[in-house]
Amino acid sequence: MGGGAAPGQVIATSPPSEPRWDFGVGYLRGTGLGNFGVSAAMAWMRRVTPQLHVFGFFDDGSRGFAVVPALKLTSREATRSTAFVTFGVQYMRMWFGDATGGGFGGYGTIGYSFRFGPGFELELGVGLHGKPTIRGTDGVVSVVQQSTFGVHLDAGLRYWF
What we know:
mainly beta, two-stranded antiparallel sheet, 0% helix
């Protein structure tokens, strides 16, 4: 009563999974950062997707941008609809008239990613973010925007190539 194969018998095994090198681009609104944003992602492992988000914003007479490298972890293979958690570090740069300043913050989101067909993905999530205190000066005028911590909603549409 051995557990091995009989002589001459072949045991079927599934082939090792190959890493996927899919690339996705899209629109992202959320992470508590901006009015509009673009997102790029590379699915190169089954459940881990490195992402890069870039946001632009206009708020209370200020304008700026944020760059957010992030990591998305999924409960199932990234090519299927799945629950996810995303976390990242954000760098913000703002202009208050001629005064400029920047700083680092962070965010985390949990949500669900819906995949439609071979290419489209819709992400919906809720999370927490922390924006940095940003101090700006033009040499004469100094401006300070206090750090904030809050809840945000994420919505994104991405196309995978």
